[in-house]
Amino acid sequence: MPGSEMPAPCVFAPDMAEQVPLWHHYLLAIQSRESPRVQDYQRAENILLTVLERAHALDSRFIVDYSRDLEAFQFALRSSEDPLDVEVLLGVDSEALLIEESEASEPGDGPAICRLGVLKEASGLGPWMTDDIFSVSSEDRDKCSGHIIPGKVLCVLKDLLVAAIVHCKHHRLIPPGSLNAASLKGGQMRLSLQVSSGWRKIRFNVVPVVKKKHRVPALEGALLKLGFPEGILRRIASHGVDLVPANAQHWRISTGYLLSRLLDALGSLPGHRLDSLSILDRVNLESWRGGSQNHGLTFDHLKTVLLWASTLFPAPEDWADLQGSVYRQLVVLLCCLATRNLPHFLYPECNLLQDSGLDLGIIYQQVEHFASQPEESLRIHVTHLGHSRPPRIDNGVKALLQLPASDPTYWTTAYFDFLLDKFQVFNIQDKDRISAMQNIFQKTKTMGSENS
User: Which domain of life is it from (predicted)?
Assistant: First the structure.
C-alpha cells in the first residue's frame, strides 16, 4: 500500500475553499431547471391519470393510484430521463390471498418470487376468479382454489389502456398528440407509455400492483436506524409490500415505494444529502453517460448509493458541506464499482450491478476521474474556467477500494473515512473517528507489507 505514515486528517486547503462556489453554481443550475421540469411532469401525469381513470371505468378491478407525491419529488431531484413507474392497484382483498414463495429462487436473487393464491374459504372474490386473470388449481389438497396470474393481468390491462386512449382522444379528454396507443409497449412485465408534455417526452411504466402486509426484515435492522429519523422505519414497514409481476406466472416484492419513502425521509434531515444526489445524477447524465447516449448508471443506482452512505455516515456534520456530501457518496460508489457489487439496500445479498450489462471498468474510470479532478465536469459556463488542480489521488486507491470484496468487515465508517482522507475531504474532528480511521490505515499498511 502506498505511503508509510498516516498523515494528519485533511482540512480544507485554500484552493479547495475557492472551488466550493463551483459546486454551488452547479447545484443552482440544476435547481433553476427544476420548476419547468416539474410542470412538464405534472402535465404528463395528468394526461396519464385521465387515461387510467377511463380504464377504471371500463374495469373497476383496476384502481387509479393518486398518491403520487413521491414520484414528483424524485422527478424534481433527477436530471436523467429514465422511465417512471406508475402503479395501477388491483382492488382485491389482500387478506384473502396467500403468498406462496417459489422454491426456485436462488440466494442472491433479491426478493423471492411467489404465486398469489386465492384461499378456498375466501368470499366475495368472484371478479378475481374469472378466466381472464385466474387459473384454477388442479390440486384438491391445496389451500387455494387457484391463482391470480400476472401475465393474464397484464394482457387485460394492456387492452384496457388501448381502449381508454382511443376513448380519451375521440372525446378530446387529452391534448392532441400527447399520447398514442401505438406507443404502448409491453416487455419486462410492465407496460410502457410515452407521453408528450410541451417539448419533453416522458416515458411511464404502468405496473399492476397488489398491496399486501408482509415483513421486510432489513427495515427492522439496527444498522438502518443510524441514518434515518427516529420512528420512520417503523412507519414505512407498516405499509407492507407491493407485489408486481416478475414473470408470466409469478409475482415479486417491489421495493420501489419503500426506498422512495426512505429517500424522502433523508430530505427531512439537515444537510446536503439530496443536493449531492442531484449533482451526481446530473454529472452521470452529462459526463458518464454522454448526455444519455450511453447505457450507464441509473438514478436508482445512485439513490441506493446515497442510502448506504447515509447509514455509513450518520452524523449531521458529515452532510453539512456540499462538496463533502458528494464525496461521501463517491467513495461508496467507487468501492461498489471496484468490487463490482452494489448491494440492494433492503436485500443486501442481491447485487444490483450483476447482469446489468454495464461496462463497469469504463464507468469506474469515469467516476474515479471525476472524484480526482471534478472541476471540468462542474464548469457550466466559460466564466467558470480556471487553473487545473492536480489529481487528488494516486494510483494505489483502486487497490484500497477493492478491500471489502475480500473482507466484508471493511464496510464500515472508519474504512470510508480513510477513503475520504485519501481524497483530501475528511474534515471531521471527532477523536474516536480519527482513531478508528488511523487503525484502518495501520491495517492496510500491514497488509501491504505482507504482500510486498
Answer: Eukaryota
